[in-house]
Specification:
By secondary structure, the chain is mainly β. It has helices spanning 24-29, 63-66; strands at residues 2-3, 12-18, 37-43, 50-54, 57-61, 69-71. InterPro entries: Fe-transptr_FeoA-like (IPR007167), FeoA (IPR052713), FeoA_core_dom (IPR038157), Transcriptional_repressor_C (IPR008988).
């Protein structure tokens, strides 16, 4: 299964699900629910953190958090 942490910059993908964790409710509240299209728009020089575009707003997250989000 591919995760959001593995998606290259400027590539769009769809969220398939979120791994069960303490962060799952918070990630869902931020709009990362199954079927939602997201695009990686920034990666820091060492890869962490990343920024993703979700319906016109930018969300910054750690790679460890992005690794919880399963994508196409």
């Amino acid at each position: 299964m591919k995760t959001l942490a593995q998606i290259p910059m400027h590539q769009k993908t769809k969220v398939l699900g979120i791994v069960e964790s303490e962060l799952k409710p918070k990630l869902l509240e931020m709009g990362l629910y199954p079927g939602k299209e997201v695009e990686v728009i920034f990666k820091a020089p060492f890869g962490d953190p990343i920024a993703v575009d979700i319906s016109g707003y930018t969300l910054s997250m750690r790679l460890s958090e992005a690794a919880l989000i399963e994508v196409e």
